[in-house]
Amino acid sequence: MNDSLGTSQSSSVLKSLYDKVRDILCCQILPNNNKRLDKKLERKIMEISKNASGNSNFKSIDSIIMKFPQIREEMTQIRDVFEQYDEDSNGSIDNEELKKCLRSLEFSVGDEEIDDLFHYCDMDGNEGLEFNEFIVLLCLIYLLTDSSSSSHATLKMYWPQVEATFNTIIEVFLFLDKNSDGKLERKDVVKALNQASPREKSPSRITHTRFKEMDWDKNGKVSFKEFMFSFISWVGIDCEDEGREQCF
To answer: Signal sequence: where (predicted)?
Structure first.
């Protein structure tokens, strides 16, 4: 009896130690992966910006806002797929469900890359991607993979409008990224908000609020991932309530 109790206590201690070591390693590894993906996205954005040669369909924030209803409608096409692979219908897709989804859709992403992107987009750390997080992940795969990859082919085949919308979102980021360095700073956002009517500048309260909404980690710079989450919130594509007022 005592031996059994001792074994049980030893197992409990070992499990507790394992959990602590795992937590320490996760705290060290995940931020490093996040920084690596941030840098990778910055380089990709800079590459796209260089190839764009300054051409843009957007001249002001108002021209972007006018696209919100169209973007919202096109992004909702993804919801059916999201709900199909949310096998336990809990409103989120876990890592294994995500892998099944991407394999079924023939996205050209390896398991290790999926793991990294899953944790990168799981902003609340609840080990599941909600619909807005799922959209961000798909957009990042589209952005980071080569145009000849099966990921792009899948979007062209199943969601041609979604592919066009991802391109629009990337173009919006480029419009805000006045330095073309793959990240946004406060002065970039202020300049963009005032670009349409330089004589009628937006109140500092508005520009401060918009930047604060994007700067999730409060480091004074906004990555493409942070921008994506804020943009989705402004457009309203992470909610199903009809007639919702726009956040912007």
So the answer is: none
Sequential pLDDT tens for the chain (248 residues): 445 445 445 445 444 543 443 443 344 445 677 888 899 999 999 998 888 766 677 888 888 889 999 999 888 888 888 998 998 888 999 999 999 999 888 888 889 999 999 999 998 888 899 999 999 999 999 998 887 777 788 777 777 788 889 999 999 999 888 888 899 988 888 777 776 555 555 555 666 777 888 888 888 889 999 999 999 988 987 554 444 444 55
Domain boundaries, the chain: 34-234
The DSSP output letter for 90 is S
The neighbour count for residue 33, using CB atoms within 10 Å, is: 14
CATH 2.30.30.60, domain 34-234, yes or no: no
Whether 163 and 155 have beta carbons less than 8 Å apart is answered as yes
Q: Which residues are paired to 222 by β-bridges? A: 184
Answer yes or no: are the C-beta atoms of 143 and 109 closer than 8 Å: no
Tell if the pTM clears 0.85, that is, is over it: no
Residue partners of 12: CB distance under 8 A and separation at least 6: none
How far does Cα 172 stand from its chain's mean position?
14
Cα–Cα distances (Å) from 215 to 18, 161, 233, in that order, read 34, 29, 14
